[in-house]
Write a structure and sequence with these properties.
With 221 residues, the protein is of the alpha/beta class. It has seven helices and ten strands. The chain has a single domain, classed as P-loop containing nucleotide triphosphate hydrolases (Rossmann fold, 3-Layer(aba) Sandwich).
Length: 221
Amino acid sequence: MIKLREIEKCYKTKAGFTYVLRQINLDIAEGEFITIMGPSGAGKSTLLSILGLYDHAWEGEFHFTEYPVHRLAAKERAIINKRFVGFVFQQFHLLDDLTVAENLDIPLSYRDIRKSERQALVADGLDRFNIVGKKDLFPNQLSGGQQQLVAVARAVIAKPKLLLADEPTGNLHSDQACEIMKLFKKLNSEGTTIVQVTHSDTNAAYGNRIIRLKDGWLAKE
């Protein structure tokens, strides 16, 4: 499903180039549940952003299903992102001027789904995450944990082909974290490919393979 070849990313500084990722070669099969681990500054979140087609400033080859991402324009990459990728950000990234229900509707609006069906999917998502009572509230009216629940619900509502998660349970208490990881496991069993970044060995145990990064390099598995 995903094939990375010699992926590198660097920033130009006065002292020269500072590399964030070096010679990343990685294959991810459809249906896998991958965990990326490593110390702070290892390049984990950067790699996740590249996989999600959010970061375009890199070198190398990236094949996503039948698409040669490295040859596509930014607009074409954005279309693939909206159609196939769900992303749970560490900092929520909810739209402050939209209600909870409207935030959940955003990923559905990018797909060819009738309004009545979208409304049904939003209602199902609200019920699934026990946030029906929050549907008309705005993000700034929610606690951090509640915002994270909404962010996860938004990421999975359209049943993306690829789900990416950057410390998805960092703002949740242990029971909520467990529920989120069980949901990820269920989605994975139904065919969703998942790549998560986490420092938690407990969360990593839900996946079937661990990728380790150190100083931008991929450690041998």
